[in-house]
Amino acid sequence: MKKIETIFECQTCGYQAPKWLGRCPDCGKWDCFVENSTVLSGPARKPNVKKKDIGNIEAVLLNSDNIKDIQRKKTGINELDRTLGGGITPGSLILLGGDPGIGKSTLMLQVLYAFSNNGGGKVLYITGEESTSQIRLRSKRLGLSSSSVFAASEIDIDIILSIAKKIKPDIMVIDSIQTMFNKDLSSVPGSVTQVRETAARLMITAKKSSISIFLIGHVTKEGAIAGPKLLEHMVDTVLYFEGDKNYIFRILRVVKNRFGSANEIGVFEMREKGLCEIANPSALFLSQRPKAASGSVVIASLEGTRPILIEIQALVSATNFGTPRRTILGLDHNRVALLAAVMEKRLGTRLIGSDIFMNVTGGIKIDEPAVDLGIISAIASSYFDKPIRSNAIAIGEVGLTGEARAVSHIDIRIAEAVKMGFNKFIIPAGNFKRIKKQDKNIDIVGVSTIAEAVDAVL
User: Fold this and answer.
1) Buried b vs exposed e over 391-419: b needs ≥16 C-beta within 10 Å?
2) Global confidence as pTM
3) Which residue among 247, 279, 311 closes a domain?
4) With bands split at pLDDT 50, 70 and 90, how would you rate the model's confidence at 224?
5) Residue 59 domain flag
6) CA neighbours within 13 Å on the CB side: how many for 334?
7) What span, in angstroms and rounded, lies between the C-alpha atoms of 378 and 352?
8) CB 355 within 8 A of CB 340
C-alpha cells in the first residue's frame, strides 16, 4: 500500500524539512516553507532492462561522421542572434528573466513572427497568463502577421507537450514557467517542485525533438529568477532583460551560454511598435550629452565583445548634514566610495565634507574596473568645476595606492571611440607600452597615477 508523507519545502532554494521552519537553514529566507505531500512507494525495484536492450547501447566517437553538425537558426533579430552566439541552437533550452513589464513577452512575440516570416518554420506560443485573444490583440498592436505562428492558452504540461507533438514547431515559448502545472504533483503552480518538474520535462522534450524552447521566468525582489537555482543549472542559456521602465533602452544580457560567449549583450529601444534593435548604441547614448559642462565624462565600456561609449555624470556639492551623502545610479556604490577615498588620500581633495551624486545616462548599469579613471575624472571635474575636454576619454583601472592599472581590449575601445569622433585618450602606462600604432591625428597619453590622469583630462 502506498504511504503519503507530508514534507515542508522552501520556495526559494528547494530545501526540504520534516516540519515547518520559520527560517530556511540553507538560503536564510524567512517564512518560505510550504507544505507538500509526497507519495512513498515500496522498496525500490530493479529497472526492467533486458539484456538485448543493453547490447544496443554504445558510445560514439565525437569526431566520427555518425554525429551530425548542428546548424544554428537565425531568428531574424540580429541583436538576439549575436547575443546567443550566432543564432538559436536546435534543441536548446533558453531561460529569459526580467522585471514585470520590461518587455519579455513582447520580445518573444517579435522573435516568433520574425523567425516564421524569414522561412524558419512553424512556431508555438504557450501562455499561462493571457488568453489567445489577448495575444492576437497584442500582435495587431505591434503590426505583426504570419501564417505559421500558433498560440495556446494552457498550463497543464501534459496538454502542452501533446500540442507540441502534434504541431512539431521549430521554436516554442513558455510564458511563463511559473504558471506551468503538473497534475501528478499536489503542490500549486509556481512552487519549487512544480517549476523544477515542468522544466525537466520541457528539457527532455527539447533534447529529443530538437525543439528550441524559450522559458520566460519571473524575478524576485532581489532581481534573481524566481524558483530554485536549479532552474538556471538545467537550461542551456540564461538571459536577463534589463532596463528601467522609465527609460526607452533595454539591455539583453547573457549570464550563461553553453553554445557561445557568456558576456554578450543586445541593445533594444522600446517604441510604439515594440522593441527595435540599436545597431550603434554609442551614438544613441551620447546624442544628448551637454557641451562644456563640468562633471560629465565619456567612458568606453566593454560588454562582451561590444565596446559601448556611455556618459557618466558626477555632482559634488557641500553637504548640509553631518554625514555626506553618496547617491550612485548605474555604478557600484562601494566602488565609487573606494575611489573617492583614494582621491582624498592621493589628490588631497576634501570629499569628506561633500555630497557625491553619480549617474550613468540612459539607465545603463556598468560593472567593470576599466571605468575607474572615468569615475575619478568626473568627480574631479565637478569638484574643481572644470569641464573635461570634449574630445577626451579616460580608460583604466585604479588601485588603492592611486596607480593606473592596465585593462583588456584597449585597441577595441579606442577604435570605437575614434568612430564617434574622439581623438584624445588617457590610458594606463601599461597599455600604452603594448598598444599598436595609431593614426597621427590621435593623441594617446599614458599615465601612471590618478594625478597624471586628472591633469591630462582637465
Assistant:
1) ebbbbbbbeeebbbbbbeebeebbebbbe
2) 0.78
3) 279
4) low
5) no
6) 2
7) 17
8) no
